[in-house]
Amino acid sequence: MNTEGDLLHTVTADDIPESRKLTGRAMVWVTASFFLGLVSIQFAHESGWTEAGFENWRPVLLAYLLWATALCAAQVIVNGEKGKRTLFVLPAALFVISLVVFPLLFALYISFTDWNLASLDGAQPNGWDNMRQMWRDAFYWNALKNMAYYVAAVSVEYVIAFGLALLLNAQIRARKFFRVVFLLPLMLSPVAVSWMVGKSMLEVRFGPVSRLVREMGFEPSFFGTPEMARFMIMAMDAWTFIPFMMIMLLAGLQALPREVIEASKVDGASGWQSFKEVIFPLMLPVSVTAIVIRIIFKLKLADIIINVTSGGPGGATDSVTSFIFREYRDRSNVGYGTLLAMVYLVLIIIFITALLKLVSRWMERPA
Amino acid sequence: MNAIFKDDAVGRKIQVKWWSSRVAIYGALILWALICLFPIYWTLTTSFKLAPDVMRGNMIPFVDYTPKWKGWESLGLSPRLIGEVSTVREEFLKRFWNSTVVAISASTLAVMLGSLAAYGLSRFNYRFGFMRNSDISFFFLSQMILPPVVLALPFLVLYKSLDLLDSRIGLILLYTLMVLPIVIWIMRDQFQGIPVELEEAALVDGLGIWGAFLQIVLPIALPGMVAAFILSLVLCWNEYFFAALLTSTDAKTLPVMVASQTGSQGINWWSMAALSSAAILPLVIVAIFLEKYIIKGMAAGAVK
Fold first, then answer.
1. Is B265 exposed, middle or buried (0-12, 13-18, 19+ CB in 10 A)?
2. A191 contacts on B by Cβ (under 8 Å)
3. Between 20 and 30 A from B7 (CA), which of A69, A268, A331, B181?
4. In angstroms, what separates the C-alpha of A303 from chain B's closest C-alpha?
5. For residues A259 and A12, what is the distance between their CA atoms, to the nearest angstrom?
6. What is the DSSP string of A143-191?
7. How many helices (H) and strands (E) are present in chain A, helices listed first?
8. Minimal Cα distance from B183: which residue of A?
9. What residues in A contact B43, CB-CB < 8 Å?
10. Average pLDDT for residues B280-295, to the nearest whole number?
């Protein structure tokens, strides 16, 4: 990224009269006070202090939208040309801030309450009780441990994806056909995959994979033992996401300078040598990007687990997300569940930051 | 040395090596293609099977068994039932329509917001308080690591009070939020690849910065936008977690419908297979025809 000065210079003689600036500022403040006024009215109504109010908070949302629009328009009215530049980023920034920051603050509050949707009392702050409960919750720690296994599985996916990318990059016929076919699993929804593969092909009695296993003389049991069940979940998730890494690596391979590889051939390097000494080192930056993004996606893993094993046997396949999903849906224990989610978020941020720091130090370039 | 005819010992050795590497490469390619295609093939064929065919493990239609419309009839989508009124079909089409509307609107919104932000960030210098350009970029991209589970409950409560629960608008907003970082990531790369001189020329010719963006830059960046759009479409169409928590009757999407049928024991294999096929077919078609854009989108961020 450039750090000093605009890349696109605009020279403008903005001569904005005071009255126009005043109008712009007035627009923002009027709509803001209108919004805050509605908030206080509705809050008073919800608390039962006043009769006047609306059925729900939707009018407040509309007032918020009005304020946001006024804020965007005021940028141009007050700042002229400079405001037009701000207008590029402002809508997206407002959108993300209002949809992420406020809910996160709210989640932080809920996570220190004993709120259960089934109880009638509503949310009551209960200090560090949730934290203590989490400390003793073996299932949560187990889910975190599983996440470590799942993340570790990315390394195997990486090897397979790299292999496939090399194959697709080789001199082959029908390259487009293979590329489309290899891409297909990524298109399928994890829910459909969990039925197609997890519930139907791996079905113990009639599933084709079970038949194959029986032909080979084993007794099929895919979700019986914890290790096997975890492996099957990993395999299904890998099946859907290997194309993702494969395509990123393929793009990297195609962007490699041809001369370097040809030079290594001229120097008499064998296929394996030129891969180990030339291609792989050149592919490191792309590999790191692909792996980091894959890990980020992996940390959200839930759909397949929810639909195939719902965490069983005995929590062996639980990911953090699927565990909290059940905490919400089956036990309605929202206060505790939200605390678990917040702790998970903190852990993820620490983990990803450390990972990026490590990678950038190792690669000796800013990430 | 008779190098031209390559039939001496050394030449033969090279030929054998070449052929064996060909066999290995195509073997591996075909093996993985089978791994990719078999589940889809299995699902499609199962949707035309009857119970005995499933139990006998028949694989090839017309050879092992006679295809029947039983599975598709349970969705009201067979030649026999297509003319009649069918409640299951209406239910299915409603879910299908919900998925379509939500995925397309969310992707459109995300591409619009994301392209603007990405363009601004790749061309101008901003200062919002302590935040500079790199901080703003990081702020947007860092949303990618936000796990959905953290936002799920606040949104449940927020939407309840806003009366947006079980509505398409609610899902659209959330999905836009979910794919926005990816769109910004792809589009920033696209805009950085477009030379600034183009816009400078446009500015000299009297266009404003918005005019230059809309008339000069957007048409050039269109393939990138299509790539970002399709990638968003795939992610939104397949999203399950939020849809399962935030919708119940009206706005339920296709993945939730598929998931709600798998829960019960004694699944009707043929009808589940038909439902799964119907849920995956749109994206399979997208993949076959727009593969170029999907690959372009995913490659955009990878290669610098």
1. exposed
2. 238, 240, 255-256, 258-259, 279
3. A268
4. 7
5. 47
6. HHHHHHHHHHHHHHHHHHHHHHHHHHHSS-SSHHHHHHHHHHHHHS-HH
7. 16, 0
8. A92
9. 192, 196, 200
10. 88
CB pair distance less than 8 Å for A341 and B113 = no
DSSP string, A249-279: HHHHHHTS-HHHHHHHHHTT--HHHHIIIII
Q: Which helix (H) or strand (E) holds B256?
A: helix B254-262
Task: Please report the pLDDT score of residue B57 as a whole number.
Answer: 73
Q: Six-digit token pair at A359?
A: 């990678």
Tens of pLDDT, residue by residue over A323-353, are 888 888 888 888 888 889 999 999 999 999 9
Is the pLDDT reported for residue A6 higher than 90? no
A201–B151 C-beta distance less than 8 A: no
Stretch 212-271 of chain A: residues touching chain B, C-beta under 8 Å = 239, 244, 247-252, 255
User: Out of B29, B158, B298, whose CB is closest to A167?
Assistant: B29
Other C-beta atoms closer than 10 Å to the C-beta of A362 total 10
Half-sphere exposure of B66 (CA within 13 A, CB side): 1
What is the tens place of the pLDDT at every residue in A238-293?
Answer: 999 999 899 989 988 888 888 888 888 888 888 788 888 888 888 888 898 889 98
DSSP A285-336: HHHHHHHHHHHHHHTT--HHHHHHTTT-STTSS--HHHHHHHHHHTT--HHH
Tokens of B64: 């092992």
A323 Cβ contact partners less than 8 Å away, ≥ 6 residues apart = A139, A140, A143, A311, A315, A340
- Tell me what ipTM this predicted complex has: 0.87
Residues 117-156 of A with CB under 8 A from B: none
Q: With an 8 Å Cβ cutoff, are A92 and B163 in contact? A: no
| Residue A3 pLDDT | 45
Collect all residues of chain B within an 8 Å Cβ-Cβ radius of residue A366: none
Are B122 and B191 contacting, i.e. CB atoms less than 8 angstroms apart? yes
**Taking phi first (over 0 means left), then psi (-120 to 50 degrees means alpha), and beta for anything else, what does residue B239 get?**
beta
